[in-house]
Design goal:
This protein is an alpha/beta fold. It has two domains: about 190 residues, D-Maltodextrin-Binding Protein, domain 2; about 160 residues, 3-Layer(aba) Sandwich (D-Maltodextrin-Binding Protein, domain 2). Helices cover about 40% and strands about 15% of the residues. Helix 2 runs antiparallel to helix 13 and helix 7 packs across helix 9. The relative contact order is 0.18.
């Protein structure tokens, strides 16, 4: 009887350990690697909770489907800002009390240490990322492109262009390329004339575009010579250029930057462990550590001074951040309010335009 009791206790302990494993859904590639190195490995070492990483082209899509189907297998997901707000408004996410988040090393509460807008009812930001355009330097050795207008100029800069398959960012970049100042882009897009103008600018390169859907694709398109320039997440180009020595250059003019945030789907199977992960991954040190692996800016003020060198031990990361002062000359903060309200409508128009 005593042996059976010991065996039963041991099995219960194993079951509890198995239940504690969590699934984190992210975007794959170099970004996922940065999360594994900066967050997941030290979290597992400290807590004993194993992490299963999965990836999607846009994690918001499977999250919505899982919660609506009542079959949630993901505990934590990494999503874009507008998606975090929309999913929260639809009741598809757990609320996260900012009071549970760790303070900065000097005691500053998390609510004062995170950058403006980085904390919402259901989400905690980890990084500031940017959609930029990049080019293969070997294709333009003498007079390389320098502005967002150059991306749309296929006469002066011949070659195919890579663009993400969707309305978001493409419309903003099209207007900036057409001469609209960054701080007037969303006011312009609120009008029918502005939307028509953006699509008219996209028309000028439509026949030269190779459309991409996953973040890992743009550097591959450049590497394979399928495109001469492509829009891309800045960290993916940095990883290809620095870690893989590809001849790729980022153009910061016309960049559109925003947060990526952690959310917990409603009905997550391991809610307590998911909350522990979010708290751990978004503390000051972890967000600074992620910048060792990819050039995305940390979402906490106290993390900034801790950002140092890339994993190669020689590349200073600060100049490669979207938030570096030199890179913000003609930059646009993505408007989550605009995209929460207009995403479905504008993507329907985009898909119709694409098929037309």
């Amino acid at each position: 009887m005593k042996k059976l009791l010991i065996l039963s206790t041991a099995l219960t302990g194993l079951a509890a350990t198995a239940q504690a494993d969590i699934t984190v859904l992210s975007w794959g590639g170099a970004y996922e690697k940065s999360q594994v190195e900066a967050y997941n490995k030290p979290f597992t070492a400290e807590t004993g909770i194993a992490i299963n990483m999965t990836a999607a082209d846009n994690p918001a899509t499977p999250i919505k489907a899982q919660v609506e189907a009542g079959n949630v297998t993901v505990d934590v997901a990494d999503v874009e800002y507008a998606d975090a707000i929309r999913l929260c408004d639809e009741g598809l996410l757990e609320e996260i009390d900012p009071a549970i988040l760790p303070a900065a090393p000097d005691g500053t509460p998390a609510t004062e240490d995170f950058l403006p807008g980085a904390l919402t009812d259901c989400a905690v930001a980890s990084i500031v990322f940017s959609t930029v355009f990049a080019y293969d330097a070997s294709k333009f050795p003498d007079a390389p492109p320098a502005t967002i207008a150059d991306f749309f100029d296929t006469e002066k800069f011949p070659g195919k262009r890579g663009m993400r398959k969707g309305a978001k960012v493409n419309l903003e970049m099209a207007l900036m390329a057409d001469g609209v100042p960054a701080d007037e882009v969303y006011a312009m897009l609120e009008t029918d004339e502005g939307i028509d103008r953006a699509f008219a600018k996209l028309d000028t390169i439509k026949n030269d575009v190779v459309w991409w859907e996953a973040g890992a694709q743009p550097p591959q398109l450049l590497a394979d010579g399928e495109v001469a320039m492509t829009t891309a997440y800045n960290g993916r180009i940095f990883a290809a250029a620095v870690a893989e020595s590809k001849p790729f250059e980022v153009v910061w003019d016309g960049q559109v930057y925003e947060y990526d945030l952690f959310v917990i789907p409603k009905g997550a199977p391991n809610l307590d462990e998911a909350l522990e992960y979010v708290k751990f991954a978004t503390d000051t040190q972890r967000l600074a550590d992620q910048a060792k692996w990819i050039s995305y800016g940390p979402a906490r003020k106290s993390s900034g001074p801790l950002v140092g060198l890339y994993e190669d031990g020689k590349t200073e990361m600060a100049p490669h951040m979207p938030t570096s002062a030199e890179n913000l000359t003609n930059a646009l903060p993505s408007s989550y309010e605009f995209w929460v309200d207009r995403d479905s409508e504008l993507n329907e128009r985009f898909n119709a335009w694409l098929a037309g």
